[in-house]
Amino acid sequence: MNFLRQFHDIVSNQEIDFSDKVIKLLEFGLDVFDLEFGIVSRVDNKLYTVIHVVAPDDAIAVGTQFDIEGTYCTHTLEANKALSFHHASKSHIAQHPCYVNFQLESYIGAPIYVGKKVFGTVNFSAPNVSEPFSEESHDYVELFAQWLGNELARNASSERLLKKNYMLAQVEEVARIGSWELDLLASKLYWSKQTKAIHEVPADYSPNLETAIEFYKEGESRDAIQQVVQEAIEQGKDWNIEIQLITAKGNPIWVSTYGEAEFENGQCSRLIGTFQDVTKEVLLREELKKQKADAERTLEDRSILLAKISHELRTPLNGITGMLTTLLYEKSEQKREEKLKVALRSADILLNIINEVLDFSKINHGELKLEPSHFLLKTIFVDLASLYLPLYQEKNLNFDVDIDISDECWIYCDNTRLTQIASNLLSNALKFTEQGEIKLKVSAKHHNSDVSLHLQVSDTGIGMTESFMKSLFSPFTQEVTKERKQGGTGLGLAIVKELIDYMGGTIQVSSEYQKGSCFDIQLPLKLGQPQSHDALLASDIDFSTLPLSILVVDDNQINRFVLKAHLEKLGLTADYACDGIDAINKCKQNNYNLIFMDCVMPEMDGIEATRILRDEQICPTDKTYIIALTANTSADDKAACKQAGMDLFVSKPVKNTAIEQAIATAKEHFSM
Predict the structure, then answer these.
(1) Which string of DSSP letters, residue by residue, matches 306-348?
(2) pLDDT band at 625 (very low <50, low <70, confident <90, very high)
(3) Rounded to an integer, what distance in angstroms lies between the CA atom of residue 240 and that of residue 459?
(4) Exposed, middle or buried by CB within 10 Å (0-12, 13-18, 19+), for 638?
(5) Which of 200, 412, 539, 586 is the most exposed place for a label (fewest CB within 10 A)?
(6) Other CB atoms closer than 10 Å to residue 135's CB: what's the count?
(7) Which residues contact 418 (CB under 8 A, 6 or more apart)?
(8) Helix (H) or strand (E) holding 106
(9) Tens digit of pLDDT for each residue in 388-411?
(10) Where are the beta strands (DSSP E) in 129-176?
(11) Spatial distance between the Cα atoms of 216 and 255, rounded to a whole number of angstroms
C-alpha cells in the first residue's frame, strides 16, 4: 500500500511536469530495486536512444545511442513483457553482446507502448548481482511502462485524467485499489470500476450520498467515516483509516480508505480518495496478534511450570540426597532401613512429578496417544483399593470400597491411563482429608459391545471454595488456604480432565468448603477379548538356576551399575557393552541368549544395533531374547523397537520387579 501511495503521489502531482515525474519515478524505482541505472529509452529502426536517465555521476547522458541488438532491451522487446535478470553471467545471455559489452548483472525492464506500437523501454540495472526480482517488481515496471505510454500518447498529466486512463485501471486491478470522487457543489458521487467491485455492486451501479453511508458497518466504522469526512470539509484534513464495510452481498470486509479535500474560494468543493480491500491483511494481522497472545500465554505457562517444578523437585531431591548422605555414617541397621525407605519414597514422588510434567507436555502439544490393551476391568480397582488402604489407615481414615464389576468383564482400553485417573483422585482425597472417610464406588454396565464405567470418589475433606471450583481443571492451579498446606505441581486434575475428554467421557464435581468433595466420572469403554492366565509369575522362579548368558548394553556407567545390582540380587552375572558397536562385536565373540539393550546411545543406538544383530543373524530370534531399556516410552518408540527386532520393552527408571518379570518372560519364551 505504501508503494502505491508513493506511486500515486508522484504521478498525480500537478506542480511538476512530465519530465520531472519520470525522473522521480526512475529514482523511486532505483530505491525499490536497489539498483544504479534507471533509463527510459526510445527505440526506432533498431536504434536505442536514451531520453530520460538517472545514473551515478551522470555516467550516461540523455541522447546517448546504442544498437538495440547490443542492449538488454532487445530481450525485453522480444519477450513483449517485463523481463529481468538478477545474475546475468549465470543466465542464457552470458555470451550475448549486451552482457559482454556492459557487464550488468542485474536488469529489469518493460516495453513502452503508445497505442499498439512499441515506443521504447523503461529499465533499471546495476553491475552487482541482486536478489531475484519478485512478481511485484515486474508489476511495478510494467505499470511504469504503461503509465509512460499513456502519458506520451496524451502528452498531459493531471490527477483527474490519470484516474480515467488505462494505467490507473491496471493499478486498481492489480492492487484492488479503487478511486472515488464526491462533487459537493453538484452533489454527485463517482465510484471507479474497482470501487464498485469492492462494494460488490453491479458495474452500472450509481452511488449516491444518501445510500453510500449505509455500506459502512453500524457503530464504530460508520461513526469514524462521518467524523473524518466532516473534518475534511470543515478543516481540510486528509484521512487514511481502516474501517469495516458490509458489501451489497452482505459480506463484511475491511478497507483502507484515503481521502483529501479540494477548496475553491475558501469552500470545500470536492473530496477525492481511494479504497483498497485489506481484509486479508487485517485478518492476518489479527491472526498474528492471536498467535502472539498464545505465544505469550505459552511462555507464561512455561515460566509458571518451571517455577512450580523447581520448587516441587526440591523436596523429594532433598529426601533422596539427605537420606543417602546420612546412610554413609549410619550404623544402626534399623535406621539404615528406615532411611532407605524414605529415599525410595522420595524417588517415587520425584518420578510422579516428572511423569506429570511429561504428560502435561504431551497433552499441551497434542502428542498424547492412548495405548489400549485387553485386561480385566475389576483388577484395576481391586489393586488400587489394596494399594491405598494402608495409606488411609495410617491417617486413621475409613476407606469404603464398593466395586460392582463382573469378574469376567474384559475391557479394551488404555489401562495405564484409566489407573492414572482413579489414582489421582484417590491421592487427592488422601492429601486433603484429615478425618472421616473416603469412598470409592465403581460400577460397569454392558451396552451391546460397549461398557459404561461409572467411577465415583468422595471424601469428607476440606472441600473447595466456589471461586476455586471455576478454575479446578486449569494447570498449575491450587487453592491456598491454611488447611491446604500440601504441595504439588497443580497439574494432576488438569491431566485427569484431558484424559477423560480424550477417552470420550465426562467428569462432574461437587464440593462444599470444609465438608468434602465428590468426583463423578462416566467413561465409555470397549469390550475386550479374554486373555490367557498362564503367564509365569516372577516370584515362582529361582533365577540363579537359569542357563542365562546375559549382555547389558548401555552407554551410561551408572545405568550399567544399577542393572548389575539388580542382576546380582537375582544371582545372575552379565557382560557389559558401552554402545551399539561394542555390543555387536561382543555378540560376534559370545553366544548371548538374553540382551538388555539401551535405545539411545552415541556412535550407534540400540535400535540400529538390534537391526544389525537380527538382519545378519548374529543373534537370531530363536536364540537371543532382546529387551529394550529406554526412557522414551511413547507408542512410536515402542513400535520402533519392535520393528527393529526387540522382543520386550522396559521403561526407565527400571525397578527390580520389571527386571524379574522381563527375565521370566524370556524364560517362558525359551521354555527354560
Answers:
(1) HHHHHHHHHHHHHHHHHHHHHHTT---HHHHHHHHHHHHHHHH
(2) very high
(3) 64
(4) middle
(5) 539
(6) 9
(7) 380, 503, 523
(8) strand 106-114
(9) 888 888 889 999 999 999 988 999
(10) none
(11) 10
Judge whether residue 283 has pLDDT over 80. yes
Question: Are the CB atoms for 276 and 1 separated by under 8 Å?
Answer: yes
pLDDT, residue 83, reads 93
Q: DSSP characters for 362-414?
A: HHHTT------EEEEHHHHHHHHHHHHHHHHHHTT-EEEEEEE--TT-EEEE-
Query: What global pTM score does this model have?
Result: 0.47
Cell of 300: 507464561
Which grid cell sits at 106? 542485474
Give Dmax (Cα) for the chain.
115
Retrieve residue 494's grid coordinates. 488438569
Strand ranges across the sheet with 177-183: 188-191, 177-183, 267-277, 252-264, 239-246
Q: pLDDT band for position 454 (50/70/90)?
A: very high
Dihedral, CA of residue 459, residue 465, residue 471 and residue 474, to nearest 10 = -40
pLDDT digits (tens, 9 = 90+) for 209-263: 788 888 988 888 889 988 999 999 999 999 999 999 999 999 999 998 999 999 9
For 280, residues 6+ apart whose C-beta sits below 8 A from its C-beta are none
Q: Which phi and psi (to 5°) does residue 496 adopt?
A: -55, -50
Residue 164 clears pLDDT 60, i.e. is over it = no
Answer for the pair 237, 228: CB distance below 8 angstroms, yes or no. Answer: yes
> CB of 583 within 8 A of CB of 595?
yes
Higher pLDDT, residue 257 or 476: 257
Write down the H helix ranges in 80-134: 97-102
Q: Which residue has the cell 527505440?
A: 43
Task: Kindly state the cell numbers that stand for 567.
Answer: 542382576
HSE-CB for 646 with a 13 A CA cutoff:
25
pLDDT at 109 over 90: yes
CA distances from 644 to 608, 615, 627, 630, 641 (A): 7, 9, 12, 14, 5
